[in-house]
Amino acid sequence: MAPILTRKKRHYLLVLAAAWGCFSWLTPANASATTNEQSPTTTSQLTVTGQPIKTPATPYYAVNGGTLYGLTPQGDRVGLTATQDLKTVPATTWTATAQLAGATPTGQPVRYLYVQAARTGLTGWVDVTRLVPGRNAQVSAVRQVPAKNYVAVKAFKAASVPTQRVYQLTGPAAAMRWTHGQKLSRAKTYRVTQRRTYYQAGQAYTYLHVTSGKTTGWVWQSDLKRGTAYNVAHHQAAIKVKLQKYLNLVTKDRTAAVAFYNLTPVKDSRAAKAPHAAVYRQGKLAVNARGSHVTTSASTYKLYIAAYLLHLKQQYRFSWTPANRAGMTRMIVKSANDYPVSVLQRHGRTSINHWLASQGYYGSPFSAVRASRTTANSLVKVLKDLQLGQKAFTNRQDRAFILSLMKRQVYRRGIPTGVARANRGTIVQDKVGFLNDNNGDAGIVTLPNGQRYILAVLTWGRG
């Protein structure tokens, strides 16, 4: 037979409830009013097997659902009245302050804890098997830490807590809410000055308070690492300023034009694997001084002839006969004039000029009454197309042939000499030109570490 709830025990329950100011334990109607739920119904009865015991305040969190109950004396038993489905309560810490042991109508021993929700203030009794010790959705007090710089990690870890963003925390520490998450940027430096612990399902997670410009908030510690962000755009701008200043200096007397265009480093080279290789992304450092100034091209015009012939090859109007291959070799390696002159005569200067203009190059290099002309910017454009396999240079074997000839050309006192003095082992594939007091050189430069760029230099009136 189940134990009898004696008059003395019932009296003890009522007195204990009154003493704690928690008479709602025993009044389901009061609990229902607190939760704004529908009228509760008695779901079962509990035979008390011991006296209710006040316990030290202990945090718990709910698992696997469960029900919040109110208790009311019913003769020799206590009735359990459901007041809230725990699944409907937002994540919170339940603080237990009392316990009550009993038995179900079938004689199974049970123990209930009297709890209160930190977030909503709900109170009631919960089967202890539905609770796990630990705090949930709460934060500790803020701790000051020495100010240090952090950056976002390269790969974020998966976690059930708020991650990968800078969050705001609102509400009291016992019922904190995450709001307004702003995505972390790997291009920013975050200054950390505070830390605190966030508890979720009994687990402790460290969060750091960060500031970066107008951005401020809390970030999961595992999303950050010590360091200062390397601002690629800032460094590119600084390099361009220095390059431009130098080019302006060397062209100040108006007897020179220079154009510079950086290429992506050679694949798998030291430059490509460098920590800040993105600074040298193709075209991001391009500058020129008087780059659009039109001047005598001398033999640099032969780059345009090579481009035009490969355009004809794309249309099946040119092929690599032994004579054409020998003529191209003489034109590039020794800068001989017989072969390009024959091309101009056969196809006409006007037609070639028209095609060059359609490709975005300087469109009027050739004339029957004056020496050929060009600009430094135009020479850079044709070399860029050659290097990247664009426009007339789509055939890989043709490109390799032209570049091999440029590497072998015999006049090496221009760009090759200059870069060799600065960086021994540098490779230069270029085409020179000299006529009277006009001197020029345009080439593709590959440094020993794999960095690459295109440079065109044209001078006049310097003797």
Automatic annotation (TrEMBL):
Signal peptide location: 1-31
Where in this chain does the record put each Beta-lactamase class A catalytic domain?
331-459
Q: Which UniProt keywords apply?
A: Signal
Report which residue ranges the record marks as coiled coil.
none
Instruction: Look up the domain of life of the source.
Output: Bacteria
A Gene Ontology molecular-function term? beta-lactamase activity
Q: Which GO terms describe its biological process?
A: beta-lactam antibiotic catabolic process; response to antibiotic
InterPro entries found in the cross-reference section: Beta-lactam/transpept-like (IPR012338), Beta-lactam_cat (IPR045155), Beta-lactam_class-A (IPR000871)
- Give the protein name, as stated in the record: Beta-lactamase class A
Q: Which organism is it from?
A: Levilactobacillus acidifarinae DSM 19394 = JCM 15949
